[in-house]
Amino acid sequence: MRLRNKPWAVKLVNDHPEAVIQDPDPAKKINWEERVADFSRPLEVEIGSGKGQFITTLAKRHPERNYVAIELQTTAAGIILRTKLEEELDNLQILRADAINLADFFDADSIDILYLNFSDPWPKTRHEKRRLTYKSFLKNYQTTLKPEGHLEFKTDNSGLFSYSLVSINNFGAKFDFVSVDLHHEDEEILKNNVETEYEHKFASKGNPIYCLHARFN
C-alpha cells in the first residue's frame, strides 16, 4: 500500500544520510562495514518494511544482530527512521531502494536471514515478474544468503502463498517450515513470531496467516 507523502518524513530522511542510504548506484556495492558498528554480527534484511514495526521490534530485541530495512517509499523510510532515532537502534540501517537490485547492494553469502512480509501479491498474470517470490528474485536471495541462511515469508494472500510454494519448490529450495494458519501453531513457534502491522490487522479479524521458511543451499 502506498503511503501518503509526508513532508516531515522526506526532510528527516534527507537530514540523516548516516542512517538512510538513498538510491544507491547498483554498479557499486555498499560498504556495509562503514555503516554498522560491528560487521561481524549476523545480518538480517527485510524487503518491503512498510512502517517498520517488524524490523524495529527485531532490532530492539536483538542488539547483537545487524538489521537492514529495504523500503522504496521515502515516507515509509522516514517513519522507520523516526522509530530508529527514538529507540536509539544503532544496529538498524535503512536502504531506500528497489529490491530487484538486492544482489548489487550486498555481497554474496553475506545475509543470514531475509524476510518477506505481506508483499504486494501482484495478482495479474502479466505482473508475475514483479512478485518477490518470482525466480529472478529467488536467484538474488540464493546469491546473497549465506550457505546456512534462509528466507522467511509471511502473507495473508492465499493465491500468493500457493504461487510462492510452487515457485520456491521449482527453484530447488528446501522448506524448513510451512503453515497455512500461523497463529494457530503451537506455543513454541508463536513465541518467536514478530507481528507486522498488517499481520496484526488481518489476524485480529480471524484471517489465516500463511508462512514458510526456505533454504537455497
Q: How would you summarize this macromolecular structure in one to three sentences?
A:
With 217 residues, the protein is α/β, with parallel strands linked by helices.
Characteristic key phrases:
217 residues; alpha/beta; Rossmann fold; 8-stranded mixed sheet; 8 helices; 8 strands; 33% helix; globular
* First-to-last CA distance: 33 Å
How many whole angstroms does the radius of gyration measure? 17 Å
Number of strands: 8
**How confident is the prediction overall: mean pLDDT?**
94
- Based on the coordinates given, report the CATH architecture: 3-Layer(aba) Sandwich
Please give the oligomerization state of what you see.
single chain
Counted up, domains total: 1
The helix-and-strand class reads alpha/beta
Strand order across the largest sheet: 1-4-3-2-5-6-8-7
| Low-pLDDT stretches | none
Q: What share of the residues lie within helices? A: 25-40%
Find the CATH topology.
Rossmann fold
Task: Find the CATH superfamily.
Answer: Vaccinia Virus protein VP39
Query: Sheet bearing the most strands, described?
Result: 8 strands, mixed
Order of helices and strands: HEEHEHEHEHEHEHHE
Strand content: 15-25%
Total number of helices = 8
Coarse shape: globular
Overview of the molecule:
InterPro entries: SAM-dependent_MTases_sf (IPR029063), tRNA_(Gua-N-7)_MeTrfase_Trmb (IPR003358), tRNA_methyltr_TrmB_bact (IPR055361). One of its GO terms (molecular function) is tRNA (guanine(46)-N7)-methyltransferase activity. Its EC number is 2.1.1.33. Keywords: Methyltransferase, S-adenosyl-L-methionine, Transferase, tRNA processing. Catalyzes the formation of N(7)-methylguanine at position 46 (m7G46) in tRNA. The chain is α/β, with parallel strands linked by helices and 217 residues long. The chain has one domain: Rossmann fold (3-Layer(aba) Sandwich), CATH 3.40.50.150. Helix content is 33%, strand content 22%. It has 8 helices and 8 strands, in the order αββαβαβαβαβαβααβ. An 8-stranded mixed sheet has the order 1-4-3-2-5-6-8-7, sandwiched between helices. β3, α3 and β4 form a beta-alpha-beta unit. The longest helix is centred in the middle third of the chain and has 14 residues. It is globular, with a radius of gyration of 17 Å. The chain starts with 6 loop residues before the first helix and ends with a strand. The model has no long low-confidence stretch (mean pLDDT 94).
